[in-house]
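INFO batch 0412 | record 1 of 1 | parsing
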Amino acid sequence: ESVHLFFPWSSLEPDAGKFDSLVLNALDITNIFYPAYNVKVELQIAPINTTAKETPKDLISIDFDDPKMIARFKAAMDTLFAHIPNVTLTALNIGNESDIYMGANKAAYTRYKVFLDSVKPYVEKLYDQLHKDDLKVGSTFTFDGLTSAATSASCKLVNQSLDVVSVTYYPLNSNFTMESPSVVKDDFKDLVATYSDTSQPIYFVECGYASSSKCNSSEEQQADFFRNVFSAWDSFYNHIKYLTIFKSTDWSQQEVDTLGEYYGITDTVFLEYLRTLGVRTWDGNGMNKKAYATILCELKSRGWCAVKCNTSGISSIIIQEPALVVYPNPSFDVWTIDAGDLYREANLYDHRGVRILHTNEKVIDGSYLQSGVYYLWISLNSGEVFRKKVIKL
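INFO prediction complete | emitting tokens
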């Protein structure tokens, strides 16, 4: 339903008023692709990213509560939203794991709060102008930052005026090995106890577990972790309203080495932790790990995903799509939907994600359309929705 997308502010705007063309192109693609599939985006723009301040170069030495910093971020948001006018946001999170950068410096959190409180109304107004809807704004901290004695109060101060409590969750020991999957339930309980007000929901914008043996883990442990995550989520559903599984596929070794340089950590256990967070392998032809099957089984058991599921999580998962055909495709004039008695209705969208047709008929008249790519969302009586790319010649 929603995907996690991340851009450091410094990547969007490396120098004052100069925006990176590759990032702008990525935003333009985002504006076309996700609306076409009715997928929302949880967007993270980070002026702080874990261990580093990620502002444009000329702002590095300026405090976050400085009016110049605030004005420049607002200007950057003007450019950002100009490139994603059709994207529906689950949330806009400003900053990533900022507690790691600020540590126990209470004054830094206070300055950061002034910054967030100043830019929040501005981005909300930009979003409302585009969508006539409210925008949820948050700022991402680590689970430890939100719950540990040294930083919990400071993080809570920052979160006071935000709409969501955004958190990254990786149960790690201090040496980058994985804690037991059994800690999940108590960890979720501790977080909910700290943020008990259900009017400010908790968003797990990253939730993951490494599978490397160097991290005292395995594919079986990773799968067990996600079983426990879904079980704990059931228990605290009134508080936890969003969860992103991080990540779908392992990073390549080259990407991991680059991340190690960024964080300034060359410890092999840490690098293996990063490398094996995916629920699929990276080897040029990725394979599903056991957690992949487990996640689909957990989704199916809650009615969120239609699959053939072996609950042991060992055998492969086959996604079941009914006998559903759209023909001819490509077409000069009409498409016909063949889904038998299962068919209920269809919506046709253009490449921008704009709906141009809603119908209960099985024959879709596209004779009046311009040549190009379109997207059919086909709804069945079972409640399932399938998406088909169709081409008008």
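INFO post-check: Residues 312-321 have pLDDT under 50 and may be disordered.
INFO record closed
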